[in-house]
Amino acid sequence: MSEQPMRAQADFLAACRELLGDAYVLTVDAETAPFLTDWRGRFTGKALAVLRPATVEQVAGVMRACAQWQVPVVPQGGNTGLVLGSIPDAAGTAIVLSLARLNSIRALDPVNRTITVDAGCILQIIQQAASAAGCLFPLSLAAEGSCTIGGNLATNAGGTAVLRYGNTRELCLGLEVVTPQGEIWSGLRGLRKDNTGYDLRDLYIGAEGTLGVITGAVMKLYPQPKACITALAAMPSPAHALRLLSLMQDHCGASLTGFELMSQYCLQLVAQQFPQLPRPFAEPHGQYVLLELSSSTSEAHAVELLEASIGAALEEALIDDAVVASSVAQSEGLWQLREHIPLAQAQAGKNIKHDISLPISRIADFIAVTDAALEAAFPGCQRVCFGHLGDGNLHYNVAPPAGMTDTLFLSNQDAINRIVHDQVHAFGGSISAEHGIGALKKADLVRYKSPLELQLMRAVKQALDPQNIMNPGKVL
Fold this sequence. Notes:
Elements: H1 3-20, E1 25-26, H2 29-32, E2 49-51, H3 56-69, E3 73-76, E4 95-98, E5 105-109, E6 114-118, H4 123-132, E7 135-136, H5 149-155, H6 162-165, H7 168-171, E8 172-178, E9 184-187, H8 200-204, E10 213-220, E11 222-223, E12 227-235, H9 238-252, E13 256-263, H10 264-273, E14 287-295, H11 299-315, E15 321-324, H12 328-339, H13 341-348, E16 355-357, H14 363-377, E17 382-388, E18 393-399, H15 406-410, H16 413-426, H17 442-448, H18 451-464
Parallel strand pairs: 2-4, 3-4
Antiparallel strand pairs: 1-2, 5-6, 6-10, 7-11, 8-9, 8-10, 12-14, 12-15, 13-14, 13-17, 16-18, 17-18
Helix pairs in contact: 1-3, 9-11, 10-13, 14-16
């Protein structure tokens, strides 16, 4: 590096230290390392520094410095993403802007049913604060003990309750954002109706930090249900699961808050890696659905509704068997089967992940066609298929055949991705349902988005971030 860029970097870092304090400008490898490797341990980037502001004003100051010295910025929350969206590339010229110290709950309004939070708030802390006030914050996902609401918003996270409450976008009423120029836009309005021009909030949600830095949000709260009842149903095929979904929606309406599909291989994998977890059925079945009903009336009402629905499903031969949790502990045990699938995959070895969405009516056909295509191309490969069937989101992951090394298997990643994503496109789906694009799926985005869509997205990026310092190399 020539003397002039080195001097510019030194001036930039000196300005950051003056703004944040020496302790919050990390440049030593041992201090920056936890911020530079992705959640799955597949890639480690480099950074000029990791900056840890504690206030919105400090974030704005950092952004003004980055704009002045043209330093790229990678915003980061809990760093639990799966598409390399929250870590820098290998160039070492970008800073990681960690929002972890912005972790306050600013306000909770139980009458308006809103909670206003810093972007660095851990999702589980928000859930607990809502519960303490007699309310429910329904966003729930496996990484909720580590992920932050800013990251959830930046990726428009989904989770297990989308069927009833929607994605993170639907749960957000207002945002506070620091622009790439270091200005603070305060859109923290707890309004459910606001038709006063372009919806800037929706531009930033799902943008993966490429347009600005989310620093605060107003999120919706809901009444706590009087009871939640969980059941696990077994059936022969995904087609039966889709018919069960229609039946449950007809019988239960909005009370149906969870509908999770899991293949037999998923539960076999969990049983192998976590033998202490429950095994609800003595015999294997082709597919399983984890159901959850929430009642605003009473536990008795929820139980009656669920038992009547399961009875109807048995009469129509949609399911082979079912178990209903009779205690909180049993309910947690059933949910652990679902939540341990990614952990079981990780312990079993490397796998190629796909976070996809499809028209719900076409899911069974997609699984059948794509399973056959993968088996023909890579005989013996295992499909670890599970996900949020009620909103059309599948985690359609592929594991190696028995005896194949991880290295050899991962060398086929591009070919496997092409098979899966081509089928997703053919069935009218999306190659990213809730994980985002990041750096991992950029080429796929160009392949499957229309030229006009990409042109419009680039126009927005150019208008809001003309210096291209916001998370460069991600999404576009």
